[in-house]
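Anyone have tokens for DUF1285 domain-containing protein? Sequence:
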Amino acid sequence: MTNTDDSRGRGQPGGDLAGLSARFGRIPTGRGPAPVDDWHPPFCGDIDMRIDAEGVWSYGGTPIGREAMVKLFASILRREPDGRTVLVTPVEMCAIRVDDVPFVAVEMKVEGGGVDQRLVFRTNVDDVVTADAAHPLRFSVDPRNHGLKPYLTVRGGLEARLARPVLYDLVELGDEASVDGHRWFGVWSGGRFWPILPVADIEAVA
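Reply: yep, here.
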């Protein structure tokens, strides 16, 4: 007897990319991200989807070449309290692998100047975010090469890594300010000073 059960493409993790896209594509997200924080479906397991450290999405080991498909999946991403990154719809939730963070900030626009400056970033999936109290910047130093690793919160705990050209532009805007009694090098945005490095440590990571 021929098995006509197509549940692998509809109700379980896995299936081909077209089937996966069809499942999640039925969710009307409108413009921008879906209201994933309002959805609490059952967990359906892991799927073979990965976002590598450069922000490249793949499924089953093959890069996803269609930008519209990547944006669809990005619009229904959520970060769980346990650190997992999941795709969420009203009826199912599946975990994916993220090597670093899911997004890359590929463009920065500067509005105003000085303490009133606003830094507006665009990600590789066209989220537009201003660095402010709700979307903080953070910086870490890679212990392997002492290089800066800059990140911006985009939404719901999901972050974007600043692409290297964007980081260079950001550093050009740097200023010094006192933080907890110490001099820091950083940038202003959204009414706050975002410390990057102690002034005394700048030469160590140059």
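Helices lie at 7-10, 17-25, 67-75, 164-172.
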